[in-house]
Amino acid sequence: MRPLLFGHRGSRGLSPENTIPSFKIAKCFGVDGVELDVHLSKDKKLVVIHDETVDRTTNGKGRVSELTYDEIGRLDAGIKLGQQWKGTGVPLLKDVLETFGDSLLYKIEIKHSSKVYPDIERLLLEEIERFSLKDKVQIISFDFDALEKVRELDKNVEIGLIIVGKPRWFIDIAKKLNAKWIHASSWLITNDDLKITHDNDLKIGVWTVNEEEEMKSYCEMGVDDITSDFPNQLVKACKND
Fold first, then answer.
1. Is pLDDT of 71 > 90?
2. Structure confidence at residue 53 as a pLDDT band (50, 70, 90)
3. Residue 241 has pLDDT above 60, yes or no
4. How far apart are CA 63 and CA 50, in angstroms?
């Protein structure tokens, strides 16, 4: 079986990342799902944005945690990429889930645990439940405290560790958290890593794969999931059905 194919922040290489148009483009190219990031606003809204600040991706300035969503929602997340994207907004997680429903899989990355964003894990789980999408979602993070809290709150939701390093180094942590996935930097995965991880009943995802030859190579290697900024190229390289 081919790996699951995910658009990174929607279709980051083709459009304003982590926006509704970006997710729509990824879906149009035929990916299985999209990867997206969540932070918590000052008024406790789950905002879909990669950075801790709005500075890089919008025409505004400030930390997400110090802005209300009314303030964030007035920003333009497209204008920096050209006039054709002018007026593109920063969505809430609920906007994404409401727009796409069960038509996509979602890898939702918690950027920081409750130590930075109090209650973010509970709020995220409640939002997923509200849309009845638990079977479509995997919660992922570099912050293992966040994953530990998610697991404490929900014994069954699918979770995945994001790592920089050899997957074999994280097998014990994944088992302790009852995580099904390890998502590793693509350049650090070998056939041995894949075998050891699979032998421990864990799945491997690779990120962020943007070269066509690499995409084909990982498809042939037998990884379980590939994430790319260019969903058009990824689907062309790996999807045969």
1. yes
2. very high
3. no
4. 12
How many whole angstroms separate alpha carbon 36 and alpha carbon 25?
14
50 catalytic? Reply is yes
CA 232 to each of CA 31, 137, 147, 227, 241: distance values in angstroms, whole numbers, following the listed order: 8, 22, 31, 12, 15
Residue in this structure with the two tokens 């690499």, named with its chain if needed: 214
Give the dihedral sign, CA 59/61/66/71.
negative
Active site residue 8: yes
Instruction: Give the HSE-up count for residue 142: Cα atoms under 13 Å, Cβ half-sphere.
Output: 10
Looking at 8, 39, 112, 183, which residue is catalytic?
8
SS3 label, residue 232: helix
How confident is the model over 97-140, as pLDDT tens digits?
Answer: 999 999 999 999 999 999 999 999 999 999 999 999 999 999 99
